[in-house]
């Protein structure tokens, strides 16, 4: 079986007790993987991807296998009560069919070194910090999120169809972000080190998912931020929910065994505290699962901060003008390619 996923589910330690042979592949662009699956340029049995690309894209094209809900009774009872609304992404729009399993979720915005920028200042100023941190910040090259964050920083809602004025605002902000960045990389471990060395004061895009490895090593000054401000009355945060679904294939029974595998209490904990990417999971609403987390584990995943996520964040959605914005982004990125490490 082939598994395509975000970092974590591909770890050998995590997969070692799964009784079927599985070939894991990680990625950093939901858009790219979903497009390739639709075009059948890649084939996989199981897909772990951010929420909207299951319900609002692959399901619509008839590529997702419906799950038998009777096999998952009590599924949502394990969810954290405050985040049960995220369960909608595991169902068809009419809520009649179960199309995937939600697990990791969280805020994904930017990361600071609190020894260089205070938490309060970062939360209140959000992306406006970029204006005063010229040549003192990095960009984590996760294009899907970069596009969303640049739009939000421009005071534009990327999840709505954009007009020419919105496109111009995006373009100008994109130019400024890339021109004034000191380092650009798709390696969050590298950016965490640059941040901790005070070579930069923040990097974006980023979240607990990317900075937790530094926090696990004891650097609690490396902190993921959910901005509380608005620009043009547009909220600045993003909350993602990863959904794991089965693609229509010849190994449905084996594929569903993997879904059942990741829902085991010990696996819920393991994926939350993965080797490189620690992150809260929805199943922490189950006391048996929550009890597995130490105080230090909760500190690493910034447990005390998750109450801010819902209030200040948009839910991760498909960007209607993604291709146009990606073209603009890559054009500006190419002008700054010397900064890419």
Instruction: State the order of secondary-structure elements, H for helix, E for strand.
Output: EHEHEHEHEHHEHEHEEEEHHHHHEH
Q: Low-confidence segments, ≥5 residues, pLDDT <50?
A: none
Q: Give the assembly state of these chains.
A: single chain
Structural class: alpha/beta
Individual helix count? 14
Average pLDDT, rounded to a whole number, is 96
Number of strands: 12
Number of domains: 2
Strand content: 15-25%
CATH architecture of the largest domain: 3-Layer(aba) Sandwich
Query: What's the CATH class of the largest domain, please?
Result: Alpha Beta
Sequence-ordered SSE layout with sheet pairings:
Blueprint: E1 2-5, H1 12-15, E2 23-26, H2 30-39, E3 46-50, H3 52-58, E4 101-113, H4 119-125, E5 137-140, H5 143-153, H6 164-180, E6 183-185, H7 188-196, E7 202-207, H8 208-216, E8 222-225, E9 230-231, E10 234-235, E11 237-246, H9 252-262, H10 265-272, H11 287-290, H12 295-300, H13 307-312, E12 313-315, H14 322-335
Parallel strand pairs: 1-2, 1-3, 5-6, 5-7, 11-12
Antiparallel strand pairs: 3-11, 4-7, 4-8, 4-11, 9-10
Helix pairs in contact: 5-6, 6-14, 7-8
Any key phrases for this structure?
single chain; 341 residues; D-Maltodextrin-Binding Protein, domain 2; ten-stranded mixed beta sheet; two-stranded antiparallel ribbon; 14 helices
């Amino acid at each position: 079986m082939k598994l395509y996923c975000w970092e974590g589910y591909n770890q050998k330690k995590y997969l070692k007790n799964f009784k079927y042979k599985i070939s894991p592949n990680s990625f950093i662009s939901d858009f790219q993987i979903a497009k390739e699956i639709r075009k059948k340029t890649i084939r996989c049995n199981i897909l772990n991807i951010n929420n909207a690309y299951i319900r609002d894209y692959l399901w619509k094209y008839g590529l997702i296998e419906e799950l038998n809900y009777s096999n998952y009774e009590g599924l949502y009872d394990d969810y954290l009560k405050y985040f049960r609304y995220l369960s909608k992404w595991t169902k068809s729009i009419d809520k009649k069919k179960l199309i995937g399993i939600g697990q990791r979720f969280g805020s994904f915005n930017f990361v600071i070194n609190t020894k260089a920028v205070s938490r309060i200042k970062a939360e209140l100023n959000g992306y406006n910090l970029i204006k005063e941190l010229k040549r003192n910040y990095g960009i984590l090259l996760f294009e899907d999120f970069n596009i969303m964050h640049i739009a939000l920083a421009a005071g534009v809602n990327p999840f709505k169809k954009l007009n020419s004025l919105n496109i111009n605002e995006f373009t100008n902000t994109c130019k400024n972000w890339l021109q004034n960045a000191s380092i650009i990389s798709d390696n969050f471990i590298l950016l965490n080190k640059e941040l901790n060395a005070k070579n930069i004061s923040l990097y974006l895009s980023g979240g607990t998912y990317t900075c937790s490895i530094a926090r696990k090593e004891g650097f609690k000054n490396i902190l993921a931020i959910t901005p509380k401000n608005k620009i043009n009355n547009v909220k600045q945060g993003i909350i993602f929910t990863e959904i794991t679904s089965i693609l229509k294939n010849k190994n449905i029974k084996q594929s569903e065994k993997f879904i059942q595998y990741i829902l085991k209490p010990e696996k819920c904990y393991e994926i939350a505290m993965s080797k490189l990417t620690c992150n809260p999971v929805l199943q922490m609403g189950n006391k048996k699962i929550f009890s597995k987390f130490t105080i230090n584990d909760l500190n690493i995943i910034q447990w005390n901060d998750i109450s801010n996520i819902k209030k200040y964040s948009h839910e991760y959605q498909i960007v209607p003008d993604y291709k146009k914005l990606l073209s603009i982004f890559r054009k500006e990125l190419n002008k700054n390619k010397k900064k890419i490490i």
